[in-house]
Specification:
By secondary structure, the chain is an alpha+beta fold. 54% of the residues lie in helices and 13% in strands. The chain contains 4 helices and 4 strands; from the N terminus they run ββααααββ. The strands form 2 sheets. The protein has a two-stranded antiparallel sheet.
Length: 133
């Protein structure tokens, strides 16, 4: 069975995708896991550079990506452009604040006098999910 991208406006099939085999899925997860192993050792400065590049590419091709959103999801162009802008803003927020967001911090003890807890972020691995659009 092939999967299709269908225009919600016209019902036209925009593209078909073959069903991935179990082996293809395993290979994709393995590739993602290897990328994860490298990424978790990547400095915040280097991560920020990658995220800024992603934001820059989205900004440069904003109209193109908005057009794809419109074709695939049926959003009007203004909403699609706003969705691209939100993605750009999220990338740039992590460029500016990612290190702070991921810093280990101590949460204060609660009003019942229990010990405070330490909140830390440790990358655990790849998350695999299928989203039926």
């Amino acid at each position: 069975m092939a999967y299709k991208t269908v225009s919600p406006y016209t019902g036209e099939t925009l593209k078909e995708y073959p069903t991935a085999t179990d082996e293809e899925v395993k290979k994709a997860v393995d590739v993602a896991h290897n990328a994860f192993l490298a990424w978790r050792e990547t400095s915040y400065e280097q991560r920020a550079q990658v995220l800024q590049k992603a934001a820059d590419l989205l900004r440069e091709r904003r109209t193109e990506y908005a057009s794809i959103i419109t074709k695939e999801m049926g959003k009007v162009i203004g909403e699609a452009e706003a969705e691209v802008d939100i993605c750009i803003a999220m990338f740039e927020d992590y460029v500016r604040n990612g290190e702070k967001y991921l810093a280990t911090r101590t949460l204060p003890s609660d009003k019942y006098g229990k010990d405070s807890v330490q909140l830390l972020f440790q990358p655990l691995g790849v998350l695999f999910m299928v989203e039926p659009w």
